[in-house]
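User: Teach me something about this protein's shape.
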Amino acid sequence: MRKLLDIRDTYSLRGIAMLMIIISHTFNGYPVGSTDVYYPLWMNWLHMELWGGMGVAVFLFLSGYGLFTTLSLKKRIDRRYFFLKGRRLFEPYIIYWIVEIIVLAIFSREEISMNLFTEIVTFSIHPDVENWFFKVIVVLYVIMLLLFTIRLHNIVRITIISALSIASLFIMKELGFGQWWWNNILCFPLGVLFAYKYQFFSGLPSHIICLSSGVLLLAVYNIHMNTIIFHLLFAVFCIYTLRLVNIQNRVLYFIGINSFIFYFIECPVMDTIMMFVYSHFPIYSCLSVLGTFFLSFLCIQCSKQITSQGIGRIHK
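Assistant: First, the predicted structure itself:
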């Protein structure tokens, strides 16, 4: 039996979730009723349009778990920690916009306009696609950091973040936001709860949890996949499956630990670079995954090189 939520397992799981998101986004880019035009009929049975939500559910759960665990172990939250967290969140976003402008300059120069600067400051992704996940995760991180700068009992912190998540669910739903804004938001406080009661959840029988959650997933699947309960069950099923199956892999780990870069870089790859094979979904999807990996790897290496040179100059 493997350790519950081992760090290498969770990053590999993030890698799988990121691949699900990329494939889902390639599939969702096709117009309604395009079966047998861009992709074969049997692919509809895979419901790839919903894989993204399932991947995001895993991300939100692991983010809540990881952030609460880290903050609980820290004696105090100083400015340096705020800076490191902010850098980890916003550095990929800045890299994305540099790449986006370069890609547009090469492939679609007419799309470069002053509107790009508006999209940058409003946390949008070109062309005018709401970058909802980044906005949600930034708000959740800020709330959690603020909760740990105040002297509170952990159960109070969990109650506050859970109440705010539930409130945002109802508010977004009432205001007419798309389902993706709210139907997996509760996975974040669920991850926080697992971090707080780790010993309890670690002691539960994994085989039984996997079997029961798997059966419930199939039951909900037959009703409607894109629901709150489905995403909660999927996150629980995944983390307990990690105790039974070894998914550790260097490639998946690399994708998982750099997931924000991959999340952003997929956009110029799918929307611009790989559009020459758009009419053939299997090829388009595979090339989008490979292109995202290659371009993300290149960006990461360049970023490390620039950072190391900057640190070298400081030391000199």
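Now, about its shape. The chain has 13 helices and two strands. Residues 69 and 196 are 8 Å apart (CA to CA). If you'd like, I can walk through any region in more detail.
User: That's plenty for now, thanks!
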